[in-house]
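>> Question from a student workshop board

For tomorrow's exercise we were told to take the sequence and the ligand below, predict the bound structure, and bring the output to class. My setup keeps failing. Could a helper post the expected result so I can at least see what it should look like? The ligand is molybdenum atom.
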Amino acid sequence: MTDRRSFLRMTMVGAAGVLVVGCDRISRTLWGPDVLGQAEGLNRRVQALLSPSGSMAKEYTEADISPVFHPNGTTMPATPAYQALLADNFRDYKLQVDGLVRRPASLSIDQLKRLDTRTQITRHDCVEGWSAIGKWQGTALSAVLDHVGVDPRARFVVFHCFDEMEEDTPYYESIDLTEARHPQTLLAFALNDKPLPVPNGAPLRLRIGRQLGYKQAKYLARIELVSSLEDIGDGNGGYWEDQGYEWYAGI
Ligand SMILES: Nc1nc2c(c(=O)[nH]1)N[C@H]1C(S)=C(S)[C@@H](COP(=O)(O)O)O[C@H]1N2
Ligand SMILES: [Mo]
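>> Workshop helper replied:
Here is what the output should look like for this input. Compare the format with yours to find the bug.
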């Protein structure tokens, strides 16, 4: 299985060429959306073989924790909404949960802490070629979904963030309901036993165990349950996906 796995992975990386480009706009000019678009179909099929829905990301020990968890992408959202919350140390912060749910909710960090919380030490891999191991504490996304009640028409969870990558273009991400209900999928409020630092996404970010860095949306403002990704952003399921990155960013 290991051999087959690494063979598939090499094939995938070679064909897609995706893992050699960074989290920046160069990807579009280098490869063009068509190359990445074609590679994505292949990648999704290969990923379906590599990551059955129940498989777990490796968890590490306290001794493995990286001394510094390098921040990347936005490190300080400039939007007035975020700045106002930060000024009061996020006391008035509430995560909005809406869309195809039975009971839309606005949840404070304290309310999230009263749902099912988990702690896990996992590795973060960025396509720019760096990794870091961190200890994350957060609420299981599945518990939040149970709290609001998911409408049967819902297929994806969309994460809307406070930071804008360009004017009026907020960072966003999405995952399917299988990934959302995976036991290692957390809404994290703490990193290495401290409240999540601003550069790493305070007050709340997504942590999914089995996908690359850009899926790990920081600065969460709102979670929306949808039946299709078509009407969100440019329709590819995430800010970087709209620049040509693949939606299923399996590690
Ligand atoms: N809201 C938001 N989330 C984001 C980003 C961003 O720019 N904005 N960058 C992504 C990328 S490319 C990476 S590698 C990780 C970096 O997380 P870190 O800053 O905690 O290292 O966040 C991801 N989530
Ligand atoms: Mo990244």
